[in-house]
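ok new one. same drill as before - structure tokens go in, u give me an amino acid for every spot. 496 of them this time. try not to just spam alanines like last time pls lmao
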């Protein structure tokens, strides 16, 4: 099948915010305990965090990690997680029915991020708690000293303020599963008053308000409008969350999931544009897609691990290669919407719906979905250019004209490299690709890395891992380059 793509240096989507390559760690399952933190592990660092996991995380070059939840956030008392670990309380954690020992709290987490060159994105509890506790946490974290809570932080051994810039006003507050869920009116008012207090406490911060928990929520749309009508001037981002599933094994439809993500982003962006116009405001509210991934395998297994234990092993998805392709397509969609999406968090990072897995006391390994994210985070920084793709299409439940080839094009910050991220969703046919370039004369050499394998292949410890491979360099003729996208493949073509 012939595919033509045209890329013009002048046709810019946006500069890409580095925060597009962020992730998420929640006090959920084994994400924290026996995930990132395991003091008895042979590779534990002096702070008790697993060095093998840190090595995998560092490779991903994450911008931010969202923490501490998720649904966990809505019942969390941040004070439980500071001070002498020996005196921290153990509690029943009502979002995930586990025991929370509070061995890791805000100080340990911020230290972990900073040691790894990552910024924390911290949530405040707007479920069981409210504006005062949110402002208190901010005072504890960001005020230099000389106040009760900043002095408390100093007394805990953290003299320097944490300087946390990015904060989430609660999590999924529209969801009936949420601890102390709210109506849009209730949340909009609380989020507005919390935002005011937090920005008075520290005007340097940026705030993310909760959008709908997912696109098919019955209040989707009206929730966003109501929340924005209350908070507009006080917030900087509105959140989107979405997980994609392949429960019925309809592969073409599953691989078209990014069509759904694209529509979701564009709809929420137009609701923001509508509110801006209604107010005649100069202020902008951009999008934070702070939970996205594939998530359905654990649900299919129908397991119910024992409750009320520390590190209850839930939602440990074993991702296959089809999931990696789907995740790759979602990444092209995020890049192609980087004019409105400024923050995006692959949810989550370790053990829970995660690219990185661990065994307690044992090895760690990389799931299939690790690799497309690794590529995008490494080579997808700079300026997103429009890619005009002409290719074959197919029909499925999500639409009649799903392109078989997805493409995102990123010109590096120094303008010395152009990287194309490409997915061929055709399960049987290769795509013979010809790319025409305009205004990119300095590029003269190309490298092609391909990731493909059996769609049901799962990377497991002790077995051969499916990894991306370099293929023969594509032909580069003047301003044209050609290469083949093999069936069901993720591809990274770098022009240098
Ligand atoms: O990421 C797992 C969970 O999914 C989060 O706790 C919640 O925000 C979402 O529903």
């Amino acid at each position: 099948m012939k595919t033509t793509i045209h890329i013009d240096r002048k046709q810019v989507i946006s500069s890409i915010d580095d925060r597009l390559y962020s992730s998420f760690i929640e006090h959920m399952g084994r994400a924290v305990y026996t995930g990132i933190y395991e003091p008895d592990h042979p590779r534990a660092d002096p702070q008790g965090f697993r060095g093998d996991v840190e090595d995998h995380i560092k490779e991903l070059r994450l911008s931010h990690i969202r923490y501490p939840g998720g649904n966990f956030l809505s019942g969390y008392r941040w004070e439980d997680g500071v001070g002498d670990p020996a005196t921290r309380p153990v509690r029943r954690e009502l979002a995930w029915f586990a025991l929370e020992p509070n061995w890791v709290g805000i100080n340990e987490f911020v230290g972990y991020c900073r040691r790894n060159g990552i910024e924390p994105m911290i949530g405040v509890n707007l479920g069981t708690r409210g504006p005062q506790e949110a402002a208190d946490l901010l005072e504890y974290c960001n005020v230099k000293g000389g106040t009760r809570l900043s002095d408390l932080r100093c007394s805990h051994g953290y003299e320097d303020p944490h300087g946390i810039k990015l904060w989430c006003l609660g999590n999924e507050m529209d969801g009936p599963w949420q601890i102390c869920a709210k109506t849009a009116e209730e949340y909009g008012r609380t989020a507005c008053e919390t935002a005011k207090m937090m920005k008075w406490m520290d005007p340097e911060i940026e705030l993310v308000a909760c959008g709908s928990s997912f696109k098919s929520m019955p209040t989707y749309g009206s929730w966003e409008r109501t929340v924005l009508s209350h908070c507009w001037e006080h917030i900087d981002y509105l959140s989107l969350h979405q997980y994609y599933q392949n429960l019925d094994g309809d592969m073409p439809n599953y691989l078209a999931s990014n069509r759904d993500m694209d529509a979701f982003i564009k709809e929420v962006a137009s609701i923001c544009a509508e509110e801006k116009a209604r107010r005649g405001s100069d202020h902008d509210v951009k999008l934070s897609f702070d939970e996205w991934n594939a998530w359905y395998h654990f649900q299919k297994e129908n397991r119910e691990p024992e409750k009320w234990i520390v590190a209850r092993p839930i939602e440990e998805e074993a991702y296959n290669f089809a999931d990696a392709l789907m995740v790759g397509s979602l990444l092209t969609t995020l890049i192609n919407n980087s004019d409105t999406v400024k923050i995006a968090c692959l949810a989550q990072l370790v053990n829970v719906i995660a690219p990185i897995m661990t065994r307690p006391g044992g090895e760690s390994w990389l799931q299939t979905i690790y690799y497309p994210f690794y590529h995008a985070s490494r080579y997808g920084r700079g300026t997103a250019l429009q890619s005009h793709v002409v290719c074959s299409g197919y029909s499925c439940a999500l639409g009649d004209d799903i392109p078989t080839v997805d493409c995102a094009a990123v010109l590096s910050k120094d303008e010395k490299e152009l990287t194309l991220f490409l997915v061929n969703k055709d399960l049987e046919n290769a795509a013979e690709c010809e790319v025409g370039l305009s205004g990119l004369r300095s590029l003269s050499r190309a490298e092609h890395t391909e990731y493909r394998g059996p769609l049901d292949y799962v990377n497991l410890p002790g077995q051969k891992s499916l990894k991306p491979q370099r293929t023969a360099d594509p032909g580069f003729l003047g301003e044209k380059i050609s290469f083949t996208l093999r069936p069901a493949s993720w591809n990274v073509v770098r022009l240098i």
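The mean pLDDT is 97. and btw The first strand starts at residue 2 and ends at 15.
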